[in-house]
Amino acid sequence: MPFDEYMEWCLYDPDEGFFSAGPVRSGKKGDFVTSPEISWAFGVPVGEWANRNAPSDHTSLIEVGAGSGALLQQIVDLWTMDRYSVYAVERSAEARRHLADEFDGVNAVESIDEIPRGIDVVIIANEVLDNMPAALARRVDDGWVEIAVGIAGEAFALVDLPARGEVITWCDDTFGDLSVGSAVSVQLWVSKWIGDVLDHFGNVTMCLIDYGGTSEELVRRDAASVVRTYRKHQSGIDWLQHPGETDITVDVNVDGVLNAIGRSGHDARLMTQRDFCLEYGLGELITDAAELEHVAARAGDVMAQLTNRSERLDFEALIDPSDLGGFRVILVE
Fold first, then answer.
1. Is residue 1 one of the residues assigned to a domain?
2. What mean pLDDT comes out for the span 42-56?
3. DSSP state of 28
4. How far apart are the two ends of the chain, measured CA to CA in Å?
5. Pairing of strands 227-231, 247-250
6. How confident is the model at residue 72 (pLDDT cuts 50, 70, 90)?
7. 147: which strand partners?
8. pLDDT at residue 104 above 70?
9. Facing residues of 2 across strands?
């Protein structure tokens, strides 16, 4: 089967999928942590952006891939339009139950199809696009082949298939000419999701945060790193040998996302998570935490000094350009 179908099955099969059939996966006790689980302060720039960019005075708030609810809690506390609906979109049944228990007045739904059409919305999606199923393709002498999943003996193995037309089109539009042998992810599902979202709702603003890069940046990386896995905070689990037992993720191709947004008639702004957080208020929190640390040091209050230093370091981790700060933020405003 094409890799995107395999990825969909491994992650979202109702009975065996890593996300849909298992427990809530994000969090320090889960399989990986995301920015809002590093620090509550991540919700400050996200919430500030959401409030500044609500497209109308009757806007609903949507978080896609709400997971543990860590970010939702932070932005709901800052959301000023409390007369209007808040939605958490989450494919995991266990996560939806958790969100329904944790939040009064938040509508936990499986997909955007369960949200009324035509309403004005602000959409937040943090580390969601990387888990949308992606095809895999390789450049060959006369075009492209797809890297698919087949069977060798009694085990899954990678095989080449003739590329589907939509895969060829996406690759040509997104990458252009590449050297023979280059392996890439093909994010058809991301492109479709963006088109569906912008078609489903009325006036839309979106904040999409994820790790990834431009086409030029991605093709320079080792082909073996195109697909990555995470389980219990460890990477490198063999996704062919352990289907449904590990997260499967790909770097988001920001050029493909921007192309999809442009095809829908919208403009987008691209920046790093570092620049986004500093533009929308995190710098002030870092300054305040540093000042509190110094005040505690002058007073000889070692415990308060250490507490404020720990919080400041968590804030700074969100903007570290070699890690979370290097994530890409795509804003539709």
1. no
2. 96
3. T
4. 38
5. antiparallel
6. very high
7. 160
8. yes
9. 148
Distance of CA 181 to the CA centre of its chain: 28
* The pLDDT value given to residue 19: 84
Question: Of 155, 184, 213, which residue constitutes the final position of a domain?
Answer: 184
Q: Work out the average pLDDT over 262-283.
A: 97
Neighbour-count burial of 236, counting CB atoms closer than 10 A to its CB (0-12 exposed, 13-18 middle, 19+ buried): exposed
Please, are residues 26 and 34 in contact by the beta-carbon 8 Å criterion?
yes
DSSP letter for 163, please.
Answer: P
**Which parts of the chain fold into alpha helices (H)?**
3-12, 35-38, 43-52, 70-78, 93-102, 165-175, 188-200, 215-219, 254-263, 273-279, 282-299, 302-317
The two structure tokens encoding residue 93: 């049944």
- Buried b / exposed e over 251-290, threshold 16 CB at 10 Å, is bbbbbbbbbbbeebebebeeebbbebbbebebeebbeebb
Across-strand partners of 156? 151
User: What does the pLDDT average to over 288-314?
Assistant: 95
242 with 299, same domain? no
- Tokens coding 326: 């290097």
Share the mean pLDDT of the chain. 91
Report the domain count for the chain.
3
Predicted local confidence at residue 83, as pLDDT: 66
Whether residues 79 and 207 share a domain: the answer is: yes
Closest CA to 227 of 136, 318, 324: 136
Instruction: Tell me the sheet residues that pair with 123.
Output: 62, 206
On whether both 88 and 200 belong to a single domain, the answer is: yes
The yes-or-no verdict on residue 89 having pLDDT over 60 is yes
**222 vs 300: CA distance, rounded Å:** 50
Cα(167)–Cα(196) distance, integer angstroms:
19
Same domain, yes or no, for 90 and 62? yes
R_g of the chain, CA atoms, integer Å: 21
pTM summary value: 0.91
